[in-house]
Structures are given as structure tokens and as C-alpha cells.
Amino acid sequence: MTDEERAERRKVILEVLDAEKEKGYDAISQFTGYLCTGEPTYLTTHRNARRVAGTFDRDELIEELLTAYIDG
Asked: If pLDDT is split at 50, 70 and 90, which confidence band does 1 have?
């Protein structure tokens, strides 16, 4: 995976989390629900968060989260 791909994945994750927070939702819980189930209704349509999240496969987003966590 290139640095550019990682940056794009990170951008998607942060955009979705920000949209959830703006709507007053528990962003981590909502995003976790989406990642675990694949059910897009866990995500708000605010700021096109559902569409943005669908830019990558859930596996790719999980991979980015784990990589970022492990890398510190």
C-alpha cells in the first residue's frame, strides 16, 4: 500500500467520524457498527458520510485503523 492510499483511507475515516459527531452521534460506536456489519444505516447521510465510507471496502478501512494503531 502506498502512502497516498493510506492518506486517502485516513481522510475517509476522519470525514465519516466528523460527520457523525456533527450530528451528535457516538461516532466511534456508529463507525464500529458499520465496520462489523457492513450495514450502511449505521452511518449518517450528513455530508455524504455513507457514500464517502463506501469509497473503500470495509476490510481496507479496518486495515488502515489497525496499521495506524500498531504504528502508534
From this structure: confident
